[in-house]
Amino acid sequence: MINLFYSYNQQAQDLHFSLQAAGFDEPTVVIKDGGFLPSKVASPLRFFLAQAGSDFAGRPRYFNEIDLPRYWEIKANSQNGQILDHGQVRGKIEYARQDRRRMVAKVKWLDLNGTVRAIDHYNQWGWKYAVTSCDAKGKEAMTSFFASNGQEVLVHNHLTGDYLYNDPDGKLISFGDINQLVAYFLQVSGYDASSIAFNSLGTCLFSAMRVKPTPDKNLMFWQEKSQGGVPDNMRYLLEGNLNQTKIVVQDQNEYQKLVGQLDPEKAKMVHFLGQIYPFKRENQHRSRALIFTNSDQIEGLKKLVEALPQLHFDVAAVTEMSSRLLNFGNYDNVSLYPVVRDDDAAELLKTDDIYLDINYANEILNAGRRAFENNLAIFAFGDTLHAPSYTALENIFAAGDVEGLIHELETILADQAAFDAVLKRQHEFAGAETADHYRQVLGEWQ
């Protein structure tokens, strides 16, 4: 039995954690490998690179350690970087994560017109494991993947969709598409693919259908949004075209929408099951509110601070703060943290019990998710919301409705039961589950 995920995005990570927490600790394979997968998560690419003798040791490259033409320079911040030749941008650096460590995942090289012509891909061990060439319009044309010793292992033609694999015996194996490649990997890698849990009705499903022999049991986790109707590939599964398939929908609203369009018998094959989240602590109902911000544009901050003297506001930024924001340090109930350190940011998430997602511009430090994991009560305005997956609809206020937010904060600060009700709503909205419920729903599949 294996888990087969298309990518290792936040939803896939949550599903993986949920399955493990419930005792379903099956091997996990991710199809789209961007070079930074956890060590215990497999991928076809990593398997092929290992077969070619790759040494999976080392550390990621930092922004100032990439391969660079002589005399060119790099300008970088915590979000991204640029490569300059006499002041002209000739490259763009993308980081693996937005965590200020500036670990390089991609370098996009530009021609004199600013069009991407090549992309260097770096992995968590610091070697350039792939190079993509692009056409005159910047469209990806060909990607070559390399082992740590420089051997070309796999070539992907983006125009035709096919792959060419150079196996350890020197034999060239051609695959017409990614589905054939994944099916081949599952058959030669030694994994037990007799039962497959997958989270995509595209590549994952088509790959599972090509595995020989066909899996005996299948478990489909639907983590996307349907476009008004039941997806055709889901109907294909509901018609019994793949052995013993159970469908699990991980969003409550999406589940209600789908089963409402199915006849009773088909609806019985579809189940709702949220996620088991890695909550780090219980909320202590303290009168402390946290704001992480990337700018001094914070909706209604002056009104909030002055209307709620009983609430202490911690405002943290990863950069220096403007004079406008620094002026809030004159209030007794405000503490400012410019250029906040990672340790201090983590400590604020432990000591504060309310998170105000009310800053404009980009989210920093994955703030919404981290606030949710630390059980902070999250509030936002409709035009400042960064973490819609973890913010209950009742806790999202209309743009400019600062008075509404003030009233809600006054209520929960004065009434612990009201505070707990907000947290319960938040958990229910995000689909927080228990290990027992996971085992109850999935037990028979195993």
Strand coverage percent: 25-35%
> The CATH topology of the largest domain is what?
Rossmann fold
Biggest sheet, spatial arrangement of strands? 4-5-6-7-8-9-10-11-12-13
Mass-distribution shape: globular
Number of strands: 23
Mind explaining what this structure looks like?
Keywords: Cell membrane, Membrane. It is a peripheral membrane protein. Belongs to the GtfB family. By secondary structure, the protein is of the alpha/beta class. It folds into three domains: 2-27 and 191-272; 63-172, no CATH class; 288-430, Rossmann fold (3-Layer(aba) Sandwich), CATH 3.40.50.2000. 27% of the residues lie in helices and 25% in strands. The chain has 14 helices and 23 strands. The protein has helices at 10-21, 44-51, 178-188, 203-210, 232-238, 252-259, 264-267, 301-307, 323-326, 342-351, 367-373, 402-414, 416-430, 435-442; strands spanning 2-5, 28-30, 41-42, 73-76, 81-85, 88-95, 104-110, 116-122, 128-134, 140-146, 152-157, 163-166, 172-175, 195-198, 217-222, 245-249, 270-272, 288-293, 312-317, 334-337, 354-357, 377-381, 396-397. A ten-stranded antiparallel beta sheet has the order 4-5-6-7-8-9-10-11-12-13. A hairpin with a 5-residue loop joins strand 10 and strand 11. Helix 3 packs across helix 4 (203-210) and helix 12 packs across helix 13 (416-430). The mean pLDDT is 95.
